Queue: 3 jobs
Job 1
Amino acid sequence: MSGLQTLVLNADYRPLSYHPLSLWSWKDAVSALLLGRVNLVESYDKVVRSPSIEFQVPSVVALKRYVTFNGRPAFTRYNIYLRDDFRCQYCGDHFSAKDLTFDHVMPRSRGGLTEWSNVVAACSPCNLKKANRTPDEAGMPLIQDALEPSIRTLNQAARRLPSSEVHHSWLDYMYWDSELEL
């Protein structure tokens, strides 16, 4: 049971985030249930017991209070990779997150800032090859411009990623607002 996780939904029954998927440990979910902060939506076929109480392990919970977002995605390494489709923006090859780095389009040593419009995903060989130069100086044009993505764009990109660890009880809540096939 140590690996069981609970999908956390906002009060409108949408996941808090898709990138990464909003998950809590089952222990944190049980604590939140006991404190009255969440509603139980789905359960695993496993039970936890105390001397006086028995609970089914939650697989999906929904917050009782709606959490609002400021409309801007967090500037994180993972979100940069997600925006860039886990693709080096110089050679175009796909990589896993552990095999990517990020590169400053305008090098920091030359005044480049660490912000959405100046940071891209890059593989190590391309990052080393570009070095302390701009893409033009290195003869390495960007595949796409570095722009701040919307939360919606990141959510759509995250849904396209393969999900090997998704429990069947989560599927209705992860994809309920996806476009249906005719």
Note: Residues 31 and 37 are 9 Å apart (CA to CA).
Job 2
Amino acid sequence: MPTYEYACPKCGHEFELFQSMRDEPLKKCPKCKKTGVKRLVGGGAGLIFKGTGFYITDYKNKRAGGAEPKSGGDTKPAAPAKAAADTGKK
């Protein structure tokens, strides 16, 4: 549910109200009780991230001994496989 900003042009009172998007805009000022309150165009709050998973460090696995896991770009190429003829038999 968003927070809407209102202003009363008669008494100058500005306030915010937390209400559903389906609710009708207010018409009466809570301070002077006169009609004519206007809903202001607000910038709103920015997107808020809560919890884990928003940083690259949140996904790293913790290994015993403090060794960091290797990512795809840090791996070494595999050692070439030995040929069947080179099995050490003479």
Note: The first strand starts at residue 3 and ends at 7.
Job 3
Amino acid sequence: MVRLTDMMEDDRNHLLSRPCPRFDGDPWVEGPPLAERRIAIVTTAGLQVRSDAAFDFRTAEYRVIPGSIEGKDLVMSHTSVNFDRTGFQSDTNVVFPIDRLRELESDGSIGSLANYHYAFNGAYMEPAGYEDKAREVAALLKGDNVDAVLMVPV
């Protein structure tokens, strides 16, 4: 992860000039214990199944990642020059912790894993640009009976 102090001045100033979005409502809700929850991963690491098309530049599209995926079958098309990919190359779980969640499912710490997980390419869009696709993914998660999402921002 690049520190602001290590970035070029123009890039740093651009990031610091952006307002942090505000959302209406209370994000905290009550629910069942973690051991009863169905969990999905949503990442902004620009991941896709090896056979899927790479992400286009500056789009809010997403990729569906099957719950049965193995880390070796994922590729990253995250194109930010500020992103260090060596962690992902060493261990996919750094940006897509599917193996860790499988372990938690196996020992009963979580209820179950979703049939599908989702990846966005988070490098180039303003947050509002993702709203339509985020609502689409939320409906897909609901259809899969997911009641907890592990967000992995990259």
Note: The chain has a mean pLDDT of 87.
